[in-house]
Amino acid sequence: MSTEPTPPFLVDAVRASASKMQGMKAALDARAKELDAVKAQLESERQDLEKRAARLEAERQAIEGERQEVRGARASVDQDLATIRADRENLSAEQTRFQDAASDLAAREKALTQAESNVERLDREMIGRMREAEAKFLAIVNREEELVKLQRDWLVAFETREQELRTITEQMHDRQEESVELHHSLARLESVFKDETDRLAAERQELAAKEESLIEAQRYLASVIEAADVGPREAERPSPPPADEPPAPTESHPPPMPIVAPRVPEPVEAESTPEPEDRPAVTRAEAMDRLTRAIEAWKRARDSGRNVGEMRNTLKLAKDAVQAGKYESAIRLATEVLDDLQAAVIAR
Hints:
Elements: H1 8-235, H2 284-303, H3 309-324, H4 327-347
Helix pairs in contact: 2-3, 2-4, 3-4
């Protein structure tokens, strides 16, 4: 062997190769460990795959059953699709109605906008009016003192008027007592007038009975006169002429005039109403009543054939007096007409 020393670069190369071999050995050991781990993992995965295959077989059978269910579900889905189509049509109709409602809503929103603008305008007007009212209220407050003063004056005037009303009430009470007394007197006059009316009605019935008896007597006299005229006419009747001579013309006598019974005028009701000592104020109703009775009596006298032309002017004057408010003059003129008619009836 040579005794020459080994060069240092060879030593380094050997050391490097040795370290490299050690690294490769360590890598191989690590790789072997990894392979063992991979082998164990593959074994576990194979077992998992077997389990999955069994599971897949079970799932395939389950899927087959589910396929049958899916077919039934498809039929139900078809029915659901038909229902969905109908619902879609209904939805389209609802959508149309919704669009109409949306258009109505837009119109309402527009109207609301206009109403809001009107409300704002009214608010401004109300604010202006409130300001005016406030100014007027201040003016009213300023005039309150004047109103209080006027109220005091009114109270004084009211007390004065109340005192006057009390005086007038006392006077009215006195007049009411007088009217009660007049009412009693009028009641007595009414009873007297009723008795007089009953008496006149009885007299009218007696006159009617007398008139009927006179008419019957006139009829009897007329029948007697006709019977007396028939005897001489039969005695003076000529004998019939011979057959060869023409008959002589007979004189035609005028028919007897019928005897007309004279008309008896109806009695005029006399005014026998006594006047009380204290006569009350004459009213329009009393004047019209007296004038109406005078006109009715005048018409009855005119229908009976009497000459009552002068009384017509008196009745016109009485009517003018009623229209002018002169009731006492009207009653006086009507009473004159009634008195004249009554005097004429008594004279006949």
